[in-house]
Amino acid sequence: MKVTKTIEETRQTISAWKMQGLRIGLVPTMGYLHKGHESLISRAASENDKVAVSIFINPIQFGPAEDYAAYPRNIEHDRKVCRENGADLIFHPEVAELYPDGFCTHVNVDQLTEGLCGRSRPGHFQGVCTVVAKLFHIIQPDKAYFGQKDAQQLAVIRRMTRDMDMPIQIIGCPIVREEDGLALSSRNKYLSPEERMAARCLSVGLSKGRQCLLQGETNAAKVIEVIRTHIEREPRARIEYIEMVDPDTMQPLERANAPLLCALAVFIGKTRLIDNMLLEEPIWN
Ligand code: AMP
């Protein structure tokens, strides 16, 4: 497994692979890899000849009051995870490599970024799209793998790829969870033991919403209320949003039927966590 720091040496490796006609899968990450990332890397390894993992904490997707400086890092551990899950290349650039002095071009996806995380994190998706577009140009993958955990990000990247005619297949991968249901996230590291217990309310709340849907509730506001009521019982939790939207357009739904995405962001203490449930098949007609 090769580790590259510069665009130049990454391009050399990629061109050699392309010359041999090999298919390339890309898994973009910010590092501090866990089993959620592992699922993306091993899936990419099973569907491509070569797998590139990018590890880059992208400063332009963090707001000024967010956790860029504190974001956890452990490159030694990440190398091991990549190797063990079948990666062939880690692209691990410095900030100045991707954003040299004078950098002033950004990629913006409208509409899909107005609600959910886009409302409370202005500029976040512009930062994500800009870095992902750069990674796509550098690595030129056939397929790129993203987690359903960041459902809005997945929808936004799909749309950017389609709108900009990028010849890359975007593969969405299911959310990997802890045994008690908490979605794996590098940010779970910030939680104290008490907060870790409290954080269960996100996935339990979503399951209560799912039960409510399966019992025939068709009013989105009512399902959201059931989830809200459950999460509000947890004193350490502060809800930022709970929304029911179309999974492709991210536009709010009033009538709760598939395809639907119910997404939420909740602070547990100072840590902001997100989770969601996706309903692809109609429950009723
Ligand atoms: P990050 O390093 O947090 O930027 O995440 C890199 C990729 O891993 C993104 O596509 C995430 O959606 C995905 N990911 C993060 N957590 C999970 C999880 N629990 N299950 C599946 N994919 C995940």
Structural class, judged by helices and strands? Answer: alpha/beta
How much strand content do the residues show?
Answer: 15-25%
Arithmetic mean pLDDT: 97
Give helix and strand order, one letter per element, not per position.
EHEHEHEHHHEHEHHHEEE
Which bin fits the share of residues in helices? 25-40%
Q: Main β-sheet: number of strands, strand sense, barrel status?
A: 6 strands, parallel
Distance separating the two termini:
50 Å
Radius of gyration: 19 Å
Bound molecules: adenosine monophosphate
Number of beta-strand segments: 9
Strand order of the largest sheet: 1-4-3-2-5-6
In words, what does this structure look like?
The protein is α/β, with parallel strands linked by helices and 285 residues long. 38% of the residues lie in helices and 19% in strands. The strands form two sheets. It has a six-stranded parallel beta sheet, sandwiched between helices. Strand 5, helix 7 and strand 6 form a beta-alpha-beta unit. The mean pLDDT is 97. The structure holds adenosine monophosphate. The site of adenosine monophosphate has 17 residues, from helix 2 and strand 5.
Keywords:
285 residues, alpha/beta, 6-stranded parallel β-sheet, 10 helices, globular, binds adenosine monophosphate
Spell out the blueprint of helices and strands.
Elements: E1 2-4, H1 7-19, E2 24-29, H2 35-47, E3 50-55, H3 75-84, E4 89-91, H4 95-98, H5 116-120, H6 124-139, E5 143-147, H7 151-163, E6 169-173, H8 193-198, H9 200-214, H10 220-232, E7 237-245, E8 260-268, E9 271-279
Parallel strand pairs: 1-4, 2-3, 2-5, 3-4, 5-6
Antiparallel strand pairs: 7-8, 8-9
Helix pairs in contact: 6-7, 9-10
Bound molecules: adenosine monophosphate (AMP).
Adenosine monophosphate binds next to helix 2 and strand 5.
